[in-house]
Amino acid sequence: MHAAFYEQVGAGRYVATAATAGPWSAQAQHGGPPSALAARELERHEPDDGQRLARISIDILRPVPVAELAIRTRTLRPGKRVALLEAVMTAGGQDVLVARGWRIARSGAAPVVGKPVEIPAIPAASRAPRFPGGHVEGYLAEIDWRFVTGKFDEPGPCKVWARPRIPLLPGEDLSPVCRTLLVADSGSGVSMALDPTRYIFINVDLTVILHRDPVGEFVLLDAESTMGGTGTGLAETQLADPGGVFGACVQTLLVAPR
Asked: What are the φ and ψ backbone dihedral angles of 88, each rounded to 5 degrees?
């Protein structure tokens, strides 16, 4: 087990550890850690206690290497009721990821509206990661997976509770938003619809909308992937904690023969 996913080496500068490596390559990061790191920068940029980060959209411009990263953050649209922030991640002088976050004003007078959803209990036993033909010694091994339905090497929809085994940065607790981003990008992986030894299905983006912050260590991913036969796929994931649904995420997939 690694100490953390990243080590900070300066203001807005981080070195990725081997724990960030994704299943497609030991040299390329899984989308979860850099998305969570970008969300952390958005949360810390010109913070406003009267607002909360409600939507984060991630565009992955190219594979994020397991290497040193730099992040620059700015406010694109300031405001008291809504504000739009942007974080750009670079590696080796190239932009590799862009994150934008909408901050929405908090309101204690807003009602709770939603449909009743039965939330399954968290299974007592975790399951060792599997990704046929892939690299599992990085990110996949550093997440505690508790499958309710489906499993790693079983194509189709899946419900799985997930929590990180290590922090994003040494000695630092994960915020609810960062914890969600860290695992939400796995929706397309746990709900794989194709054999990864024959096809790639790599997400080029991730959009997460949180109508409230999650509570507790585990996040439930209720995920399903669909594909249109054109080289494009869609992964849709409902996000929940033991108290109920708190958000959703979608991913656009590049689908192609290996």
From this structure: -115, 125
pLDDT digit string, tens, across residues 9-67: 999 999 999 999 999 999 999 999 999 999 999 999 999 999 999 999 999 999 999 99
pLDDT reading at 1 higher than 80? no
Q: What is the end-to-end Cα distance of the chain in Å, rounded?
A: 30
What does the pLDDT look like over 184-219, one tens digit per residue? 999 999 999 999 999 999 999 999 999 999 999 999
**Which residue from 9, 31, 12, 8 is spatially nearest to 20, judged by alpha carbons?**
31
CB-side neighbour CA atoms (13 Å) of 252: 11
Our CA dihedral for 123, 245, 40, 255, rounded to 10 degrees, sits at: 80
Written as one string, the DSSP assignment of the chain is: --S-SEEEEETTEEEE-GGGB-SS-TTBB-SHHHHHHHHHHHHHSS--TTEEEEEEEEEE-S--BSSEEEEEEEEEE--SSEEEEEEEEEETTEEEEEEEEEEEE--TTPPP-----PPPPPPSS------TTS--SSGGGGEEEEEEEEETTEEEEEEEEEEESS-SSTT-PPPHHHHHHHHHTTHHHHT--S-TTTEEEEESEEEEEESS---SS-EEEEEEEEE-SSSEEEEEEEEEETTEEEEEEEEEEEEEE-
Q: For the chain, list the domains and their CATH numbers.
A: 6-106+126-257 (2.40.160.210)
Q: Is the overall model pTM greater than 0.85, yes or no? A: yes
What integer pLDDT is reported at residue 115 of this predicted model?
81
- Lookup: tokens for 99: 């994150």
Tokens of 105: 């004003």
